[in-house]
Amino acid sequence: MNGPRILLTRRWPKAVEDALRLNFEVTANSDDVPMTADQLKMAMRHYDALCPTVSDRITAEILSVPDARVRIIGNYGVGLDHIDMRAAKAAGIVVTNTPDVLTESTAELTLLLILMASRRASDGERELRSGHWTGWRPIHMLGWSLAGRTLGLVGFGRIARATAQRARAALGMRIAYFSRHRATPEDEEKLAATHCNSLDELISIADVLSLHCPGGAETHHLINRHRLGQMKRTAILINTARGTIINEFELAAALNSGQIAAAGLDVYESEPAIHAALLAARNTVLLPHLGSATLETRTAMGMRVAENLGRFFTGEPPVDRVV
Q: In angstroms, what CA-CA distances link 151 with 162, 195, 229, 264?
């Protein structure tokens, strides 16, 4: 059909692609692999809207191509550190994202990582599948109970709070957090959450440290050798936020030395490439960026992009405009 031309840099759920085609001329990347910088530059000249994912790097060079036609970037996801926001603003390109809709699924996955890491589920499955399991025995592959343990949350936004609610209700965990913006007394009371005055204070008391802060320069390698050294030797590190928050080589060293007990990760600094030391590290649960990977959530994310595009091209302000 005629209408604004939009490019989806990856394949999206069929229901979303069908909905978009009702109002737009849609091109989806049928190869479903990351597009090259040259392909993205060409797209900037031929489409009215670009719809990237976290696996795309939308750089200043791409955003500043001569004769660019793209007027809006409808990002498929919440995080925006893969887009040069300053360059987008300078080029007069609107940027939107998809908040709220992936809160529940990411909180669920965070809880899954906590459970898997604390009960050594990945270690157990690897042993069984390799044929090395010799049967039940009293001291075999012992994990750690979670009831009464402290879940420390770095950041206290929607996903962190949803994780806290589940961990408290289902697992009987205590909740502590550190955030630049302290929650209201009502929110703290609702989750029985204790605010820590510093990240170092939180790290020192957490039995499970779960990362829920944004990526970017301010949080780059926030978790490094120094902070890993402040954690309890029985502590577990969980990351469903951004891979750049952790120095992966130093995390692998901490795991192998027994400095911390275990880690559960869903995001990585150079994904899909994973640091070799991390792949070989003991007591790890490593998932391939599945935080929002439910059919319901991925569909809702796409529909949110469609809503933002629809409003923009009919002259209304997009609900989720960030630039």
A: 13, 12, 18, 14
Nearest-angstrom CA–CA distance, 40 and 198: 41
First to last CA, the chain: 29
In this prediction, residues 195-224 reach a mean pLDDT of 97
CATH of domain 5-101+295-313: 3.40.50.720
Question: In which residue ranges of the chain is CATH 3.40.50.720 found?
Answer: 5-101+295-313, 103-286
pLDDT > 70 in the chain, percent: 100
Compute CA 3 distance to the chain's CA centroid, rounded to the nearest angstrom.
Answer: 33
Predicted confidence at residue 282, as pLDDT, reads 87
Residues marked active site are found at 242, 271, 289
Question: Are the CB atoms for 113 and 265 separated by under 8 Å?
Answer: yes
Domain 103-286 coded CATH 3.40.50.300: no
In the chain, the amino acid numbered 49 is A
In this structure, are residues 96 and 322 in contact, taking their beta carbons and an 8 Å threshold?
A: yes
Q: Judge contact between 141 and 120, C-beta under 8 A.
A: yes
Per the CB < 8 A criterion, the answer to whether 305 and 98 are in contact is yes
- 98, 292 Cβ separation under 8 angstroms: no
